[in-house]
Structures are given as structure tokens and as C-alpha cells.
Amino acid sequence: MKMGYDSGVAVMNALIDMYGKCKCIGDALEIFEMMQEKDLFSWNSIMTVHEQCGYHDGTLKLFDRMLHAGIQPDLVTVTTVLPACSHLAALMHGKAAFALDGDGCGFGGLEIPSTIHGFLKNDPPKE
User: Fold this and answer.
1) Cα–Cα distance between 57 and 54 in angstroms, integer?
2) How many domains does the chain have?
3) What is the pTM of this model?
4) Residue 47 maps to a domain
5) Where are the alpha helices (DSSP H) in 8-106?
6) Is 3 inside a domain boundary?
7) CA 100 to mean position of chain CA atoms
8) What is the structure's pLDDT at 30?
9) Within a domain: residue 104?
């Protein structure tokens, strides 16, 4: 890091968040990449930075990396990834995020609207 501070994951996550709020995506990504230990908050933070800056493809690439790293997504992950999917018409990623819900009816107590539910299951919306 620039000032020589090599603190724990929480400090690095805070730096990612700070750089993201300043729209300094390169600096946020640099901090993320230099982290030896990444938790779910680290992944969600860097994906949120990419999504808020309009780098939808980067959001989905990070989502794939997170899944390959064995990190289990949560509701924050899903609410970050789904808009990126809609921007890029990335139905496959949307289905993958939706499948994490299990039965497809709700996610962590959050009810999924039937229109989204049908779309992700390839059922046409019922009028």
C-alpha cells in the first residue's frame, strides 16, 4: 500500500470502499488484488465499485472469480450482480446467482418478484 500500512482485511476493505466512493476504480482494484486474504465483504465491495462505475463486465468477471475461489455469495452479491446481468443481457449469470437461492422463492428472507422468478426460470411472465 502507498503509506506502508499493511493492516488486516477490515482496513483493506475500507480502502476499497473509500476508493470506490471516489470513483478510483484502479486504486480500489489494486488494493483488492494485493490482498492475500479476501472475505465476502472484500468481493462484494470490489464488485460494487465496478458496478457503480458502470464496468458491468468487470462485475461479472469478479463474480466468476469469487465463485471459483469458493466464496459463497449472499444477498448483497446477488443485488450487485443482477443489475450487471441486465445491462449485459447476461442471462446465464443471472440464473447462476438466482440458483444460489435454492428453491427459487426467496433469498435470505427476501421474496423474489414472480416476474423475475419466471424470467430466470425461462417461463414467460403471466399476464
Assistant:
1) 9
2) 1
3) 0.68
4) yes
5) 9-21, 25-34, 40-52, 56-68, 75-88, 91-99
6) no
7) 13
8) 96
9) yes
How does 89-99 read in b/e, with b if 16+ C-beta sit within 10 Å? ebeebbebbbe
d(CA 80, CA 124): 24
Three-state DSSP at 110 gives strand
Angle 26-28-34 from CA coordinates, rounded to 5°: 100
The answer to whether 16 touches 48, Cβ cutoff 8 Å, is no
Residue 35 lies in domain: 9-120
pLDDT for residue 42 is more than 80? yes
Domain CATH for 63: 1.25.40.10
Q: What is the DSSP letter of 105?
A: S
Residue-wise pLDDT for 66-114, tens only, equals 999 999 999 999 899 888 877 776 556 666 666 665 554 444 544 444 4
